[in-house]
Amino acid sequence: MLTSIAGRSVVVTGASKGIGKGIARVFAQRGAKVLLAARGAADLEATVAELKAAGGDVAGQVCDVTDWDSVQALIARAEADHGGLDVLCANAGIFPQTKMVDMDPEDWDFVLGTNLKSCFLCVKASIPAFERRGGGRIIITSSITGPITGYPGWTHYAASKAGQLGFMRTAAMEMSRYGVTVNAVMPGNIITEGLESLGDEYLRQMAESIPLKRLGNVDDIGNAALFFASDEANYVTGQTIVVDGGQVLPESLDAMKEI
Ligand code: NAP
Known about the structure:
This protein is an alpha/beta fold. It is built from 9 helices and 7 strands.
């Protein structure tokens, strides 16, 4: 049993759907004050209403994580409404699938901007709030794709997710002076609105390649984020946890047939 995080101020980006929504729900269920962020107001309002109906102390803020002013306003809102900032979950991300032969340079910039530069913007914006608080936690949603595995169509995405880990290691060193830890969750294939858009055949084949024989769910990632945010993880920084049902383990297709 982890020490209670009730009352802590948590910001989750990309929280109107998918993994971000799962992270927000896990924290809200444990009594944290959660500020959810996303670009689309309608989805955000619906998610906030759902979590509130379940008893969560939650609010929503429309925010584009690629926009510096928007990110600063997000952190300011958490401080103003929730009395400070304790946990930042930099989760927002996109994964359009395009092979390099069809990829425009603008496609590359858009994915790197949304997934990687946004981490820098969110962490930078949070520094004064963490300094005022005297400590805190940053949890980045990376991926197995890039740091460990590859998949055609995702060179930009893979680079952004591996880049997040490079960013994390030096950010962990810089943030240590503020008493802030910086860690990353590396999900495998998790059932979300974004993943479902890749189609039933993708989901079926993916489940077959995973030793636990199923895709993950968003709570699996929320629980890993909760550990990094807990008091018990206070001496863990610059580290990663893979949450993938064993997906990166098989050495070959035959290895899967043996289990
Ligand atoms: P999703 O279902 O498509 O949800 C993405 C969320 O991010 C939405 O709330 C979306 O809302 C928000 N978002 C996108 N661009 C944004 C921006 N510029 N500013 C603010 N919010 C933005 O995606 P997901 O599957 O949950 O993925 C979430 C994170 O997990 C990503 O970083 C992804 O790389 C990572 N991940 C996912 C999987 C997986 O299997 N699902 C695996 C590994 C890693 P709006 O569009 O309204 O802004």
